[in-house]
Amino acid sequence: MKKSKIVAIIAYVLIVIGIFVTAGSLFPLEESETVTIPAGEGYYWTWEVSFWLNGHLSGDFEVIGTGSVQVFVLTSDQYDEYAWDLVPSDSLDEVEGASGTFSADLPDTSSFYLAVNHGAGYDSVEQEVQMTFKVTGLDLTYLIIGVVILVVGAVLAVLSGRMKAKEKASEVAPLQPQSQPTDVTMFDTRQKTQ
Amino acid sequence: MEKKVALIPRVIMKGAMGPKEYGILLTDQRAIFVLENVNRAALLGAIGDALLSDKKTVDYQNENIDGLVADEKNVVVSYAGIQKLHMKKGFSSYTMSSMYTLLIDYVDSNSKPRSIKAFLQPSQEQVQKKKAEGIGAKAATEEYARNAKKAFEQALPPVALSKGEWDL
Question: In chain B, where are the structural domains located?
Fold first, then answer.
C-alpha cells in the first residue's frame, strides 16, 4: 500500500474520531454513585466539575438508612472555605435532608464542586448516600480535544494529497513514457476534406 | 469506415459528485467524450483524492470506436447534431480560476437537445513536461487549448465547423 493511502486512512480515522469527540462535547455528563461518609467529624465527599461553557449542574441525593446530609454546590473560593471547616460563607446551592434535589448554573469555565457531608447531629454515624447528578452545557475539554484531532486529521489529509501527487509525478515520467498521450494528438490529418 | 482524427486527452466536466475527467476522441463523424476518471475528491477532499480517484487507461490508438460509443459512461456528440460549438477563455466559478471552456449545444441520437460544458485542462504530467521545456503552466494551458481548437478544425466537417466560435 502506498504511503499516501496509509496517511489518508489515518487522516480519515482521525477526522471521524474528531467529529465524534467534538459532538460529544454537547452531550451532558451524567454520574450516579453511592458513597459512604465515615463516622466522625469533618468527613465529606466531593466531585469537581470544570471547563464547561454555559454549564448547569443539577441532581438529587438520598440517604440510604437513617439521618440527613448536607449537599453543597460551590465555587472554587467557596470550596476552599468549605474544605477548612465544612462551613462555607456562601454557596451556589445548599440543601440539607434525608433526600432532596440541587441545582445551580455554573457562571464561568472555572472549577466548581459538588460536596456532601454529615447532616447536623449525624457526625458519629457512618452514612451511605446515593448521589445522582448531571452537568449540561458545552464541555470545553471534549471540544478542544475534538478540534485538535480534527485539525491533525485535516493536516494529514492535505499531506496525503500532496504525497499522492508526488508519487504520481515520480511514477509517470520515467516508467511509462509512452503509456498515454498527454497533449492533443492528431491521428491522421490526411482524412480531412475541405 | 469511421476514422480517428484526433485526441484531446483531458477535459474536466462537472458531475453531481465532483469533477469528471474525460478524453475526447474526435473521429470524422463524431466526438466521443471518454470517461477516464471520476474524482470523488469533492466529497472527501484530499482523503477522497488519495483513496478514491480511479484513473482508467484508454488505448485510444487501438481502441475500437464502436466499443467506446457503446459504453454508457461515455458521451457521444455526432457532428450532424451540433447546433453550436463555442471555445472561449474565461473565469470559471467552478474551479475559481481562469479556464478555457468548450461549450457544445447539440441534439442527441433521440433528437433531444443537450449541451456540454467542459474545461480544457492539460494533465499535471503535460504541464510538468512543458515546464521542463521552459513553458509556464499558463502558456501550456493556452497552447493546449489552441491545439484542441486545431483538432476540432481538423475533425469537423465544414457544416459543423461553421457553427463554431473561437474566443481564445
Answer: 4-163
